[in-house]
Design a protein that fits this description.
mainly alpha; 3-stranded mixed sheet; about 55% helix
Length: about 675
């Protein structure tokens, strides 16, 4: 599941290496040579670092900030002339920024609680409060007070290339200096930041409340397969119901075909209004898009039409408005990959294509088709039959979990036991769980990290009135993996600005490791370890195959929007459908023997958290390498050691954590071996 988007993004940088200045050399019209020379004459810091800091201040200094003389006086008075001065300043900033970011994060958690947690009556002000961003004026205030310039001057920005070249030689303290250097690399207007917050809140509210009750949905042949009310959120709930249906040998395929028809209507923006208004008198036939009430067909307008794509378009315009205020006029695509993931979009696409175009795809597809005894259907991108739970009756799993976790408090109480089963000491398990709070979620579920050590991270998953079902438990275990990472990488890293992991893929990796052990934690683990490892390998490969295609669509859609900035929602909709078909036809049609399918565009992430999807496949690759590394090791000890590393750049983190770089080859090679082994079995 997705993590709540961070309120601020700190990026990896570095400081003491004497290297050439590679950033934009513009000084915004300010003369810098004299003040650089004056500081260098009185400073024991590297000359190149003095030059870098002064030039980066000049690039963002405006006439409102002061005259040439005031600029020079500011630089001279505020540059730390010794490492001791710099370290004292750094520690003070760590403490104060933890206070600012931590308390603002808690405010956001509380203001968004009515929209994200069950048990709150809806009011007209909920979305307005949810959209409130206490840090909307943060950068503006920091520049006005000149605190931002103090940071830039003493902790300047370094490029990703420079970090890759020099990062292995930097100490933890230097990495902290460098991470602080990424906080102020632009001067985005508060109005632009506020608009982005409003767009995010509106999109999240739209998706969080988009549920389809499958009890009301019928097939083309007027068959209703769900006897009881089952509201499923798009897309997570619908996708998970498709996965669960593989265990239903009698009605599973029919259920999947109905859900697939629902998904296509969502993608096309053709879901009738009544479907999501919780009017229980209707019957909906998505194959023909007819609505029946009391046996009579009624006419209704479409719910979506342009709205799904209008939310996406609003996101684009909000992010694009920030481009001119960011270093080098970077695009949102650049900021997401180069700055946040610290993997270029080209590198990510190369990784994805290595899997999508690999011969292992057909090998696994043939294995799936053989196991099911039928040809593949488009929704089989979510084939779930390799998991051990696919052979367990879903209703029995639900019954077991509901009995074990009748309330969210029962689940919270059992979290320390989950950790000790995974190899964590009782002391460590107790510490981590004392910093995690559990809520019943309105949406599909998420983990929301803490930003200060005196606060808790949030674990949210769905818990019904009759208890937590297996889906809620499976999601809960995944989100708990996030919480474990969040707690370790906040409390045990060397300094505040190393808090976290290189990017969201690295926290997803641990969440996937936890999620993959859900049956083991219930006492349902398999006795055949070799078979289990083979099944896990092909299952992970197939998940990569699915989500990498989805990620490619997400990336291509954003490239299209930048190439067509004046497009309206209707044009965007047609572009999304065309891109989804193109990616399908290139990487999926040769395997599924069907062309022009749009299923890759169904993911809600595209609407509420653009370009986040790429974190999942990268996370899967890390997950596989992490799982392999953890084999025959104490998981609790190693996870604790690894996630203490903090926010290094991806390759350096991988090398220090597991002694290897990020690669598709381990998964591809293991998949071929697994297919060979599984093909021998009857």
């Amino acid at each position: 599941m997705r993590q709540i988007r961070q309120l601020f993004i700190l990026i990896l940088l570095s400081m003491t290496a004497v290297i050439s200045y590679a950033n934009n050399d513009s000084t915004n019209g300010y003369e810098v040579n004299n003040i650089i020379a004056a500081i260098q004459a009185k400073s024991t810091m590297p000359a190149a670092l003095v030059e870098r800091g002064v030039k980066q201040v000049a690039a963002l200094w405006t006439t409102e900030d002061g005259t040439q003389q005031e600029f020079e006086r500011f630089c001279y008075d505020n540059f730390c002339k010794t490492l001791e001065e710099k370290t004292v300043l750094f520690n003070r900033i760590c403490d104060n920024f933890e206070t600012i970011f931590g308390h603002d994060n808690r405010v956001a958690i509380e203001l968004q609680r009515p929209e994200q947690v069950v048990g709150y009556p809806s009011t007209s002000v909920d979305q307005l409060f949810s959209a409130y961003n206490g840090l909307a004026h943060f950068q503006e205030d920091m520049y006005a007070s000149k605190l931002a310039f103090v940071v830039i001057l003493n902790f300047p920005h370094f490029t990703l290339k420079e970090k890759q070249q020099n990062g292995s030689r930097w100490s933890d303290l230097e990495w902290g200096f460098v991470r602080l250097g990424d906080v102020f690399t632009s001067r985005v207007l508060a109005s632009v930041e506020l608009n982005l917050s409003n767009v995010m809140a509106a999109a999240n509210n739209y998706i969080d409340n988009y549920n389809v009750d499958m009890q009301q949905v019928g097939s083309y042949y007027n068959e209703f397969y769900w006897e009881n009310s089952l509201p499923l959120i798009t897309h997570w709930g619908l996708r998970d119901e498709i996965k669960a249906a593989y265990a239903d040998k009698e009605k599973g395929l029919h259920k999947q075909m109905v859900i697939y028809d629902v998904m296509k209507r969502i993608i096309q923006g053709e879901v009738p209004t009544v479907v999501t208004r919780h009017n229980w008198d209707y019957k909906w036939y998505p194959s023909t898009n007819q609505i029946m009430m009391n046996g009579i067909e009624i006419l209704t307008d479409g719910l979506e039409k342009k709205s799904r794509y209008q939310y996406l378009l609003d996101f684009f315009h909000a992010e694009k408005a920030a481009d001119e205020y960011c270093q080098g006029n970077s695009t949102f695509i650049d900021r997401k990959f180069e700055d946040e993931y610290e993997i270029s979009v080209e590198e990510a696409e190369t990784l994805f294509k290595e899997v999508l175009a690999s011969p292992q795809v057909k090998q696994v597809a043939d294995l799936i088709s053989k196991r099911m005894g039928r040809k593949l259907q488009p929704f089989d991108i979510w084939y779930d039959g390799f998991k051990e739970r696919s052979n367990v009756d879903q209703s029995k799993l639900d019954e077991l979990v509901k009995q074990k976790y009748p309330t969210k408090d029962a689940f919270a109480k059992d979290l320390p036991n989950i950790l000790t089963k995974l190899g964590f000491t009782k002391e460590m398990a107790s510490f981590i769980c004392s910093h995690v709070s559990v809520d019943a979620s309105v949406g599909a579920g998420h983990a929301w990290e803490s930003k200060m050590k005196c606060d808790n991270s949030m674990l949210r998953t769905r818990v019904g009135e009759d208890g937590m079902d297996y889906k809620g438990y499976n999601i809960g275990v995944h989100e708990f993996g996030h919480n474990v990472e969040q707690t370790i990488s906040l409390h045990y890293v060397p300094n505040y600005f190393l808090t976290g992991v290189p990017n969201t893929a690295f926290t997803e990796a641990l969440a996937f490791v936890f999620q993959g052990k859900d049956l083991q934690l219930l006492g349902l683990d398999t006795a055949d370890k070799t078979l289990s490892e083979d099944l896990n390998a092909v299952d992970l490969f197939w998940q990569c195959y699915e989500i990498m295609g989805v990620s490619m669509v997400d990336i291509q859609v954003w490239k299209w929007m930048y190439a067509n900035p004046n497009a309206d929602a209707a044009q965007l909709k047609e572009a999304v459908l065309a891109i989804a078909k193109d990616v399908w036809n290139q990487y999926y049609a040769p395997v599924f023997k069907m062309k022009d399918e749009t299923i890759l565009a169904v993911y809600s992430h595209m609407i509420i958290d653009p370009l986040y999807l790429s974190a999942y496949p990268i996370g899967h690759l890390i997950d596989f390498q992490l799982e392999t590394y953890l084999k025959d090791k104490n998981m609790g000890e190693e996870v604790t050691r690894i996630y203490k590393l903090g926010r290094l750049i991806p390759d350096l983190w991988m090398e220090r954590a597991m002694g290897q770089k990020l690669s598709t080859q381990p998964l591809l090679e293991r998949t071929s071996m697994a297919v060979k082994n599984l093909s021998k079995k009857k």
